[in-house]
Amino acid sequence: MRHDGLNRELLSRYAPRPGRKPLLPSLGDRQQLALLCRVLSREGYNDHIAGHITLRLDDGNYLANPWELTWSELTASDILRLDAQGQVIEGDWNITPAIRLHMDVHEKRHDVRVVIHNHPEWSSVWSATGKVPPVYDQTSALVDTDPVVYDEYRGTVEQRELGNAVASALGQSKWALLANHGALVVGESIRQAHLRAITLEWRCRLAWRVQALGGGTPLSDAVIQATGARTDLNGFPFLWEAMCREEIRRDPRVLD
């Protein structure tokens, strides 16, 4: 798979056997992006038609989900192709005016291929408080850093000034909680961006539940860094494929 982001050398040490069959069929970029939208929708990134994902291509153009469709219904043929200014150059649908945020992030972060913005159920709770959720379990530690908190909501981000402000606040971080405006997650590959997005939502959900019961003991920084540095770098092998297979079983038309 292109853009799979796997550390093959590390993987060969822990999983040397090739397996009986491929974990996924060969997938194109549009199919991978459609699957990412579907998978994340089931993970809580499902605020109706809000939210957008971009994938930077090798030719300097981008793929993105259309404005009109929910992440849970779109298929590969619905995915749009954009130029470097965020204008649609291929596809039947429209792109959200808020795509400006993505273009600003891509412009500042040449290491980033994937940008995800949505208003996830549990990440939005913590973004509304302006607080960083503690790490209470191993799954919450699959990424080794805290999200940046951008603590000023100034409206939607279709204006260049506002998109730039959010992109600047993200800096070199892997993810951010945007005050009163959900989450922003970036990655070097679809696999890595998927892991970061689901880890953030899991971490936010579990932290809320633990604190609702009176609190618990967070993991130490050393444990978080030791756990997350390895998994985040390698995108948690086999997880992305497993979630894709599950989605394809539910609705094979996602690949159309």
TrEMBL record:
<dbReference type="InterPro" id="IPR036409">
    <property type="entry name" value="Aldolase_II/adducin_N_sf"/>
</dbReference>
<dbReference type="InterPro" id="IPR001303">
    <property type="entry name" value="Aldolase_II/adducin_N"/>
</dbReference>
<dbReference type="InterPro" id="IPR051017">
    <property type="entry name" value="Aldolase-II_Adducin_sf"/>
</dbReference>
<protein>
    <submittedName>
        <fullName>Aldolase</fullName>
    </submittedName>
</protein>
<dbReference type="GO" id="GO:0051015">
    <property type="term" value="F:actin filament binding"/>
</dbReference>
<dbReference type="Pfam" id="PF00596">
    <property type="entry name" value="Aldolase_II"/>
</dbReference>
<feature type="domain" description="Class II aldolase/adducin N-terminal">
    <location>
        <begin position="31"/>
        <end position="208"/>
    </location>
</feature>
<dbReference type="GO" id="GO:0005856">
    <property type="term" value="C:cytoskeleton"/>
</dbReference>
<comment type="similarity">
    <text>Belongs to the aldolase class II family.</text>
</comment>
